[in-house]
Amino acid sequence: MTMKTTRQYLYLYPVLVSLVTTSLWSCQSSPQSPPRERISINDNWRFYKYENIEKTDNLIYDVRPEITDTNDDKQADSKPTEAVEVEATQETLKAWIMPTGNRFIKDPTKHYTRPKGNPGKDFPFVQSDFDDQNWQAVELPHDWAIEEPFYAGWDTPVGGGMGRLPSPGVAWYRRTLDISTADQGKSIFLDIDGAMSYAMVWINGQLAGGWPYGYSSWRLDLTPYLHYGGPNQLAIRIDNPAHSSRWYPGGGIYRNVWLVKTEPIHIAQWGTSIRTKDLSASQATILLDVTIDHDGNENQNIAIQTDIFVLNEDGSIGDKTVAAFAKKTISMTAQNSSTIQSTLTLDNPRLWGPPPTQSPNRYVAITTLTSEGQTIDEYRTPFGIRAISYDADKGFFVNGEKVYLKGVNQHHDLGALGAAFNARAAERQLEMLKELGCNAIRMAHNPPAPELLEMTDRMGFLVIDEMYDCWARKKTPHDFHLIFPEWHEQDLRALVRRDRNHPSIILWSTGNEVGEQYTGEEGAKIALRLREIVNEEDPTRPTSASMNYAKPGMPLPETMEVLNLNYQGEGIRNAPAYAHLKGINTSPLYPRFHQAFPDKIIISSENAAALSSRGTYLFPVNEGVSAPISDGLGGDPKTGYVSSYELYTADFGSSADKVFATIDQHPYVAGGFVWSGWDYLGEPTPYYLSRSSYFGLIDLAGFKKDRFYLYQSRWRPELPMAHILPHWNWSNRLGKITPVHVFTSGDEAELFLNGESLGRKKKGAYEYRLRWDDVLYEPGELKVIAYRDGKEWAEETIKTTDSPTQLTLTTDRQSILGDGKDLAFVTVAVTDQNGLTVPNAMNDITFSIEGPGEIIATDNGDPTSLVAFPSLERKAFNGVALAIVKPNKGQAGTITIKAVSSGLKNAEVTIEVIQ
Prior knowledge:
Blueprint: E1 6-12, E2 36-40, E3 45-49, H1 94-97, E4 136-138, E5 169-179, E6 187-192, E7 199-203, E8 206-211, E9 218-221, E10 230-240, E11 257-262, E12 265-279, E13 283-294, E14 300-311, E15 317-324, E16 328-332, E17 336-347, E18 362-371, E19 374-391, E20 395-398, E21 401-402, E22 405-410, H2 423-436, E23 440-443, H3 450-459, E24 462-466, H4 484-499, E25 505-512, H5 520-537, E26 543-546, H6 555-558, E27 563-566, H7 590-596, E28 602-608, E29 627-628, E30 630-631, E31 634-636, E32 641-642, E33 648-649, H8 656-664, E34 671-675, H9 706-715, E35 722-725, E36 740-744, E37 748-753, E38 756-762, E39 770-772, E40 781-788, E41 791-799, E42 806-811, E43 815-817, E44 824-831, E45 844-850, E46 853-859, E47 873-875, E48 880-887, E49 893-900, E50 907-914
Helix pairs in contact: 2-3, 4-5
């Protein structure tokens, strides 16, 4: 493939729906009988988790190897190892689960046949007469571990790597489904957006199927097992192994679950695909594929009609049809599928593109199936029209405009809410990334919730959609290498079919730092197979896998359509400050890769891995621009804190300053993705007694670190801004050297201490901060005036505060919806008599609430804090803490949140709950 060729694409994605989608289907056979229903079944579940793994049932998917190494504080770039073979010593259910994925296995001869029998049929939990009233009542999405106490210390069941929460274990979810007699003759499906992991489903005591990979979205056909005119018992077993992840995976059914009802002839799951063959300012040629399933027993003629409408920013549909595909009629064979291809020309297309220079315009295609004049299905497919191209010398282009990738890596947890997906919490993360200047997200290292991609489409982010963290070689004893050989095709085809129509996705990634980098031609063969699968499902986008070890001249990079480099561009452990470290040691490799692959674009898919604890500053300060954390230089192992001078990194990482300079010196690099945008649960390098990471530009609670402003100064050069660090409350440093650094989008700045100039400095070549490293501390006022092209550009002032006297509460939104899902994020600040936040305050705070809502979690961004998230008592961490408020479902009124702290004036804030 020649990467300099411009390719034009058109994408679509599923409609985001909160409850019942009946109202979304405008073409109905009657008001009481819509042709398709997609019903949320997130409510009314009962949940039970076994107390420990030794006391569970025997309904296992497969046997697993014995764990002999429980150490989880390994370097993130440790070499993966080969799988351990085991033999089954008891009956397993894998053979009954494998057929669930048959639709995603291309070769019919390799489809799995369900064995005879019904494992688990006599187990009490799957029986309709089992009394589960003593089980916990829960609503989905649900993370069974996030409200639990943290494990403290070494030699715990779950260590720092997986977030010190009890996510491993086996649990059951039960719910009844009322299926009316009017549904007889329909096809009825269970759609699960994500369950962690090894999910197996029984309906009315019958094992219907399941899916092992915890990040996949999947479907089961319930039709053969249903009783009509009454309740049907649904029971789902979840098995989340210990030592199965390098970060916090969460536990349980942590994404949305749907019941889908269709007529026997219907559009298949993820059954539409839209793309463009030609695109210009005046016209777009649109290609549409529609796959139709016929689950009935008689051949039937049907008509297919697809109309295109404008999709407004708020998700509403425009009044007028802007284009229509020609109506087609086909004969559907019973128990078969057909794919119908159509083409149209759309005049004056509204293009999708990333802000601020472009707009994320969208359309929606409404496909209607009719038979004998009656509507039998309607399927809505939002999409966007845009051309993307890759040029190995010039970079990445959207609609002919060069777009530098200003990206972050994001894990899937939502901080104190855990893995359970919440639309508002995810939206808040994206809003703050927009403020940062970020325009791209790499989904690390797994498929995201489908609603998150709807948001990236709507907000105009560019996305790398990633499949796996490992292939056949393991990183942890029970990670998904155990299922990769038998499930990679099903997982990968399901991902691409689900997500191929999102305009925000620009690249597929099949893996991250996989062990097959080390296995030569054998590893390259696997990489090529995965690439072929993706290309078959979506020929419009290139594929890659992120490489932190493979070099030019090795087999794996040859298979890549895009070169995704993790840390190798700026070099790994190669600078003088890193010379003493063990592990991968690599000189900066952008030139070698560019020379070896002159037709392949290079993306820095993972870079930096810098570390800091928000608002914490340790002395002395490193004189260079990048150094690994060490005791006494950037890190304090006694407190578990890392300095926020933003110069310190993981052993394999580099500071932002070093990353910026390396990329700027190699302008053919299309941009990069910093590790990471937000802190996340687990992987607390370098202090594994902590609960959460130190990598983020934003901490776990959503408070900005100093590094946020360093990236903002680079990514939003048009924004007048200046940021001073550290804070200026240093009663123990009177007369001592206390370096002052400034991040600004200006090109020079002058610093003043108590009105006296400490000098005016200008950024040199490949310099991204201004440093005054010899400042002697005295209390008072620090002020910086930044300049650009010789003119005043921005300024900031920070002051030594008085002692804390009061609390201040603010909320991110004044009103929220009373749907039981919306959220408000309330910040408490410890302030002095002048209203200034005291930047080193660690006061104990107690929250309370009145009105139609509850405080579901609190946090402060301190990675060492092991206070359980539901606690209403929490210390401020360097001046601030957070409370997350959820409204009661179906209620309206005023919520009042109060915060109290001994010796301080209390505070309260109100939020309106509206219907």
